[in-house]
Amino acid sequence: MPDKILVTGAAGFIGFHLTRRLLDQGHQVVGLDNLNDYYDVHLKQARLRMLEPHPAFRFVHASLADRPAMEALFAAERFERVVNLAAQAGVRYSLENPHAYIDSNIVGFMNVLEGCRCHTVKHLVFASSSSVYGANVTVPFSEHHPVDHPVSLYAATKKSNELMAHTYAHLFGLPTTGLRFFTAYGPWGRPDMAYFSFTKAILDGRPIDVFNHGRMQRDFTYIDDIVEGIVRVLGQIPQPDPAWDAANPDPADSSAPYRIYNIGNNRPVELLRFIEIIEECLGKKAIINMRPLQAGEVVVTCANVDDLMRAVAFKPTTPLEQGLRNFVAWYREYYQS
Question: Which of the residues are catalytic?
């Protein structure tokens, strides 16, 4: 049955793709975004231009941190489900502008939780991040591992979101599900991400900075797989786990209606191999500057997706070679390069 769904961050990379999918399924979607200038606003506006002709879509230009605007939106619309994807993203930028992360990721998320609580939303799905695993070196990363040692403020805000959501699930019975995304990539992606900036630099003949001297691995997850996971989880309203043991608490679930899932490809790729694939797609070699590891970065990410598979019978499968080919084809068409 079609629902009225709020997607925050609808002009963003994942939000745009998710909104298109939900509209194709017949849902009514209200998309919220503040269109900030963290990266190219023209790209965000181009995504919106593809959404706005749809009769079941309405765009709201507002910030999550604007409490009166958020209260008015929830009161007027009476959403059945909410997907919170709006956030200040980026590990490195959190070293430069920490207040932006508190405003959007903490204050903004609080406003989302209050809107859901006060207006009886059936299910809140929110974006967390693989960054929450922080100093953990046990791979693959499992939702059942503790995540108490973040190494960036961005990661700390995402961990905070999980704690805040659990509190609302426990106190008010608000069904909440957090999704830890692992390095999403694909067409219409974010210019601040490595695959995007590497592609641009290689085509322009400029050098690329490769951190930790290339000794890094990432669990790159194609956007269609990310969206499929979100859609399936959105339809799976969490229930309290009667077997949850307070004496041996499992971080992945709860006696409250709360769950956490990884969404990752479960196949980490060496950074230098990742660059090789981009070179193959472009037919052009990269000029590489080897650099040391940056503050706030982790060396390896790899998702255990067993819980996601058990819950919704899905795990990401798109090979990196195919996903990057799709991205490069879009990039060349969009930028006429």
Answer: 154
The tally of CA atoms less than 13 A away on the side-chain side of residue 9 is 24
Name the token pair of 125: 């799905």
Other CB atoms within 10 Å distance of the CB of residue 114 = 16
Residues of the chain with pLDDT under 50: none
Structure confidence at residue 1 (pLDDT): 65
pLDDT of residue 137: 83
What is the per-residue DSSP string for 267-282?
--EEHHHHHHHHHHHH
Task: Say how far apart CA 281 and CA 127 lie, in whole Å.
Answer: 30
Q: What percentage of the chain reaches a pLDDT higher than 70?
A: 99
Bridge partners of 289, per DSSP, are 209
The β-bridge relationship of strands 184-185 and 176-181 is unpaired
Q: Quick one: which of 179, 263, 251 has its CA closest to 221?
A: 263
Judge if pTM exceeds 0.90: yes
- HSE-up (13 A, CA, CB side) for residue 93: 13
**Which one, of 279, 284, 289, lies nearest residue 209 by Cα?**
289
In 109-222, the DSSP E strands lie at 123-129, 176-181, 184-185, 207-210, 217-218, 221-222
What are the C-alpha distances in Å from 91 to residues 11, 21, 46, 225? 20, 28, 25, 23
Q: For 255, what's the count of Cα atoms within 13 Å in the CB-facing half-sphere? A: 9
Closest CA to 17 of 196, 198, 230, 261: 230
Q: How far apart are CA 226 and CA 30, in angstroms?
A: 20
